[in-house]
């Protein structure tokens, strides 16, 4: 019994102190479920996520074939749920002005350490709270974070002719509240002009890659 009480008090104390820390770091207090998301990602990044340290091959391919050709002297970029900022840092090294937004303070701290020498504007916050000004970015990146409701905000924030690049895991099994379903992405980006699209199912899941332009 004593052990149970001790555990409960420890848990509540951690939640309270997390709440205080969140209020100090974040623009807005986070809900309990978002605090759990933040804790989860902070923990993962503290342990190390080496697979997210270097730019993704699809991003590099699209950068070389389309993005750099559309914007030879760089532009403004928004990297949503940027993690360690692998794409923001790459863009900053290629004359771009990137803004990286992520809920994990640990990820953003590591991003800043890696980005020494180049300029990446960073924000620690829930992207749902990020106020995207209309027609303010030449390029928006959304990699491995999915939120259906966020897509219209992204398109509104792109400048005319601006590019949207995304890579997502999807589920091949129809289920309620599934993150993203097979063949769903195309419907979500139907207002854009498609430049590149590939969906690769692997058993009951898969990966989808997309680059499109606002017309
Ligand atoms: C799989 S990682 C991908 C990171 C990065 N996009 C990349 O491809 O390297 C998912 C990221 O989403 C962030 N994230 C999760 N929920 C978020 C939210 N509501 N707002 C902002 N970032 C969030 C996590 O902190 C984590 O950095």
Detail the topology: elements first, then pairings:
Blueprint: H1 2-25, H2 32-47, H3 57-70, E1 76-80, H4 86-92, E2 97-102, H5 105-114, E3 121-124, E4 137-143, H6 151-157, E5 158-171, H7 185-188, E6 192-202, E7 205-214
The protein binds S-adenosylmethionine.
Description:
This protein is α/β, with parallel strands linked by helices. It has two domains: 2-50, no CATH class; 51-214, Vaccinia Virus protein VP39 (Rossmann fold). The chain has helices at residues 2-25, 32-47, 57-70, 86-92, 105-114, 151-157, 185-188; strands at 76-80, 97-102, 121-124, 137-143, 158-171, 192-202, 205-214. The protein has a seven-stranded mixed sheet. Strand 2, helix 5 (105-114) and strand 3 form a beta-alpha-beta unit. The protein is globular. The protein starts with a helix and ends with a strand. S-adenosylmethionine is lined by residues 37, 41, 52, 81-83, 86, 102-104, 107, 126-128, 143-145. Residues 78-162 form the Methyltransferase domain. InterPro entries: Methyltransf_25, SAM-dependent_MTases_sf. Keywords: Methyltransferase, Transferase.
């Amino acid at each position: 019994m004593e052990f149970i009480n001790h555990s409960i008090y420890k848990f509540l104390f951690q939640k309270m102190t997390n709440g205080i820390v969140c209020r100090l770091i974040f623009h807005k207090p986070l809900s309990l479920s978002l605090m759990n998301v933040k804790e989860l990602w902070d923990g993962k990044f503290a342990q190390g996520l080496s697979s997210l340290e270097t730019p993704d091959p699809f991003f590099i391919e699209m950068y070389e074939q389309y993005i750099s050709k559309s914007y030879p002297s760089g532009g403004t970029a928004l990297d949503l749920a940027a993690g360690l900022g692998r794409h923001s840092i790459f863009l900053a090294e290629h004359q771009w002005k990137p803004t990286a937004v992520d809920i994990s303070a640990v990820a953003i701290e590591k991003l800043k350490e890696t980005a020494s020498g180049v300029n990446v504007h960073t924000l620690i916050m829930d992207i749902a709270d990020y106020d995207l000004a209309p027609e303010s970015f030449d390029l928006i990146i959304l990699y491995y974070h999915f939120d259906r409701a966020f897509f219209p905000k992204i398109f509104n924030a792109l400048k005319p002719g601006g590019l949207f690049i995304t890579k997502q895991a999807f589920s091949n099994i129809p289920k309620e509240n599934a993150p993203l379903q097979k063949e769903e992405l195309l419907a979500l980006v139907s207002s854009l002009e498609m430049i590149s699209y590939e969906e690769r199912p692997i058993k009951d899941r898969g990966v989808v890659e997309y680059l499109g332009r606002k017309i």
